[in-house]
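The records we work with from here on pair a chain with its fold. Taken together, the tokens spell out the fold as the letters spell out the chain. To see the layout at work, look at the sequence and tokens printed below.
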Amino acid sequence: MEHELIARAQQGDTLAFRELVEAYSDLVWRTARVLLRDSARAEDATQEAWLDVWQNLHRFELGRPFRSWLLTLLANRCRMIARRHTPTVTPLTQDDEDLLIGTDTTSEPALQRETGDELRAVLAALPPDQQHVLELRYFADLDLAEIASLTGVPLGTVKSRLHRSLYAVRARLQHNYDLISNGGL
């Protein structure tokens, strides 16, 4: 099905292209939002990336993974936009917190009991590379190979960063919970 859509879009079928955009719009938006941390810049990157896709679709080789190609174009566009602007820091939204808390790998009772402020503080205390991999994995919902491709680091490094960051989050939240349970906070 996707293969046919791409082939039709490559031939100039705008309806087929629109279907591709609709199928991948959430993924592209979430990824841009994580990479740029600013809604306006993420929107710009999203629009420019889709324009890049349309203009370069004739170069895409059928049979290759479209999602990876799309994410590579998006990552390049995000890098260009990031170089044009000074970085901004955006706090986690309630939706982001709910997404992180609701993931199967971090759903321990201690994590579920933490407030948003505590979770933000724990995440902010992580090194930037660990924060980034957590955000790409759980907020943008990318798999590890896609994160490696986007960040330009080896898959093993992505795995170890994710493991270390999840361990650190769990340990800190468990420590906070233990303090609360023992009347320490």
Q: What stands out?
A: The first helix runs from residue 2 to 10. The CA atoms of residues 2 and 20 lie 8 Å apart.
